[in-house]
Amino acid sequence: MTKQLISRIFQKRVLSLIQASSGSRSQFAAEIGIDRSALSQLLAEEAVRLPRADTLIRIAQRHNVSVDWLLGLTEAASAVSVRTTELADNPEYYNIPLLTRWHAEARGTKIRYVPYHLPDILRLPEVVAWELGPEHDDEAIAAIARSLDYSREPGTDMEICLSIQVVTGLVEGTFPWDGLPVSTRRAQLEHMIEHVEALYPSLRVFLFDGRRHHTVPYTIFGTQRMAIYAGSQYIVVNDQVTILQMQRHFDDLIRHSVKQSHDVASWLRQLVLTMENH
Questions:
Q1: What pairs with residue 157 in β-bridges?
Q2: Which of 25, 116, 193, 240 yields a CA-CA distance of 20 to 30 A from 267?
Q3: What kind and span of H or E run contains 33?
Q4: Cβ(212)–Cβ(70) under 8 Å?
Q5: CB under 8 Å to 184, separation ≥6 — which residues?
Q6: Neighbours of 242 (CB within 10 A)
Q7: Tens digit of pLDDT per residue, the chain (278 long)?
């Protein structure tokens, strides 16, 4: 390959890493130890230059990709050729230590989250208690609820895509919310409104039509890890090609959302009024 072609491939792949992490060129530059102007020169359309070897290595290490992938010498993005997919045990309903570690490692990058039902970070302690059952005492429930509030950690940038049917089911008390008292369901909606408004725009919630767009529950932690929720286990992927494909899947859910993030709180308020009128 010519140096010009290698440079174009490098630019394209670095841009994909920037988009997949914070979306900020300044932050990306700081993470790899160069200034914003140096990064801009590398990514300029007319540029035919490549960064120094130490800069290439820092990009590869920070984003868990190989130098060969950055330079277009391979299509396999992962810096590790083995165990790009593994299983992580999830013996309890919430694996707090594991989830906490993953969120901490992804601090400063974008987290994309498609929950199984309601997002962990938007659940009331009363809803957590109802899901876990009577064998957990109040102190344990409160500790779990506090631990799940990753959205308040410094540097958090999170997008959540949630099926609108999960929310309407909460209002109507249909599966999986059948048996949950109406007062708790209303309080859960009010809790969601409070969090969605207080944490916007670092937390952005999008609602898609689950009858038209199907998905498994998963979380993408920056560019380094994706975890698919599988009940008693997580399927963990660190292959960059797969992660980028799932990021595109997530972006597609956002594009087809029936409620965009800036409309969600007001729509939830209307649902609360509907419940009060019935």
A1: 110
A2: 116
A3: none
A4: no
A5: 124, 126, 127, 130
A6: 15
A7: 787 888 889 899 999 888 877 678 888 888 888 988 999 988 988 888 888 888 888 888 788 788 888 888 877 655 544 446 788 877 666 777 888 888 888 888 899 999 998 998 898 888 888 887 777 777 777 777 777 776 566 667 899 999 999 999 999 999 889 999 999 999 999 999 999 999 999 999 999 999 999 999 999 998 779 999 988 899 998 877 788 889 889 999 999 999 999 999 999 999 999 888 76
Structure tokens at 84: 């790009």
Residue given tokens 């299509």 in the structure block? 75
Structure tokens at 53: 């070897």
Q: Is 85 helix (H, G, I), strand (E, B) or coil?
A: strand
Which two tokens mark 46?
């007319």
Q: Are 226 and 105 in contact, with CB atoms under 8 Å apart?
A: no
